[in-house]
Design brief:
By secondary structure, this protein is an alpha+beta fold. It folds into 2 domains: 87 residues, Arc Repressor Mutant, subunit A; 52 residues, no CATH class. Helices cover 34% and strands 18% of the residues. It has a 3-stranded antiparallel sheet with strand order 1-3-2. The chain has a 3-stranded mixed sheet with strand order 5-4-6, with no helix packed on it. Helix 1 packs across helix 2 and helix 3 crosses helix 4. It is globular. The relative contact order is 0.13.
Length: 142
């Protein structure tokens, strides 16, 4: 199956019409070997720079959220007004570099097993994903 057919299928399964702009969004998101972390604004800039095209922010936003809803993307909230999206939808941990605003996947050996006591009656833990915020240690740079 070629990428274009795969992208059209993802769009249709997500309830979206496979327009030229949405296929371009798919190319940026899914035609890569490594995990891709991005904000919607980052993606908009990347599309403008790499493809020399303007796709409306509303189209990008709606496409990303439709993909998230169908499980093709994962959303990682950094704070109340900043979210990243991840093309790797498996359960995994992240470092967030507050100096560069970069989200980085953790390797399995970066974090020991996380143990949590579930004290919520009638609830079970489905997954545990850790977000570790890091920044430069300015005290040691004197």
């Amino acid at each position: 199956m070629n990428f274009n057919t795969e992208f059209v299928n993802k769009l249709r399964i997500s309830g979206l019409r496979p327009t030229k702009q949405r296929i371009k969004i798919c190319e940026i998101l899914f035609n890569r070997e490594k995990t891709f972390h991005f904000t919607i604004n980052d993606l908009s800039k990347m599309i403008s720079e790499k493809l020399n095209e303007k796709i409306s922010l509303a189209t990008i936003y709606n496409t990303i959220h439709a993909f998230k809803k169908k499980g093709y993307l994962k959303e990682i909230s950094i704070n109340s007004d900043k979210s990243y999206f991840d093309t790797n939808t498996s359960i995994h941990h992240h470092f967030y570099d507050e100096d560069t605003n970069q989200l980085i996947d953790c390797n399995e050996d970066d974090i020991n097993e996380v143990k949590i006591n579930n004290n919520l009656t009638g609830k079970k833990i489905n997954s545990v994903e850790v977000l570790i915020k890091v920044a430069s240690d300015n005290q040691n740079q004197n």
